[in-house]
Amino acid sequence: MFSHITIGSNDMARTKAFYDALFAATGGPSGITDANGRLIYDHRGGRLLITRPVDGKAATGANGGTIGFTMESAKEAKAWHEAGVANGGTSVEDPPGERTGSAGKMYLAYLRDPDGNKLCALHRIES
């Protein structure tokens, strides 16, 4: 359904270091910077773009918004979370771990990136 997700940043160098660490924790490549100065991450069929807001105003995190990343294992989700915290992210929500809800059993880990965007690592645990 989605072709890509784009979020804003106020400090592209800081943001690149943060997201490069997250993607490295899941076997993904470092971001590339295009001719317009946007960071682009392609991994597992998804595309994340990060840019300075085109209106010149400050980037802010979406209130109520979350960007979810699919993980291949709980171990990978934990490594993703640890890489984020070590590179300027903030752990939010409950601590990383297993949860059971209407969608079944899963391992979840939540972060806010340095610009306040809320991110989630999700691994579905098979019954």
Written account of the structure:
- This protein is of the alpha+beta class.
- The chain has a single domain, classed as Roll (2,3-Dihydroxybiphenyl 1,2-Dioxygenase, domain 1).
- It has two helices and nine strands.
- The protein has helices spanning 12-25, 74-86, and strands at 5-8, 32-33, 39-43, 46-51, 67-70, 90-91, 97-101, 104-112, 118-124.
- The strands form two sheets. Strands 5, 6, 7, 8 and 9 form a five-stranded mixed sheet that branches. Strands 1-4-3-2 form a four-stranded mixed sheet, covered by helices on one side.
- A hairpin with a 5-residue loop joins strand 2 (32-33) and strand 3.
- The longest helix is centred in the first third of the chain and has 14 residues, at 12-25.
- It is globular, with a radius of gyration of 14 Å.
- It starts with a strand and ends with a strand.
- 28% of the residues are buried.
- Residues 1-124 form the VOC domain.
- It comes from Methylobacterium cerastii.
- InterPro entries: Glyas_Bleomycin-R_OHBP_Dase (IPR029068), Glyas_Fos-R_dOase_dom (IPR004360), VOC_core (IPR037523).
- This is VOC domain-containing protein.
How far is the first residue's CA from the last residue's CA? 27 Å
Q: Percent helix among the residues?
A: 10-25%
> What's the number of extended β-strand segments?
9
Figure out the total of helices: 2
Specify the oligomeric state.
Answer: single chain
Structural class: alpha+beta
- Largest sheet features: 5 strands, mixed
Write down the overall geometry. globular
Identify the CATH class.
Alpha Beta
On the 0-100 scale, what is the average pLDDT?
A: 94
Flag low-confidence runs: none
- What is the correct CATH architecture? Roll
Let me know the CATH homologous superfamily. 2,3-Dihydroxybiphenyl 1,2-Dioxygenase, domain 1
Tally of domains: 1
Percent strand equals: 25-35%
SSE order, as H and E?
Answer: EHEEEEHEEEE
CATH fold node name: 2,3-Dihydroxybiphenyl 1,2-Dioxygenase, domain 1
Q: What would you report as the Rg, rounded to the nearest angstrom?
A: 14 Å
Protein name: VOC domain-containing protein
InterPro entries: Glyas_Bleomycin-R_OHBP_Dase, Glyas_Fos-R_dOase_dom, VOC_core
Domain VOC: 1-124
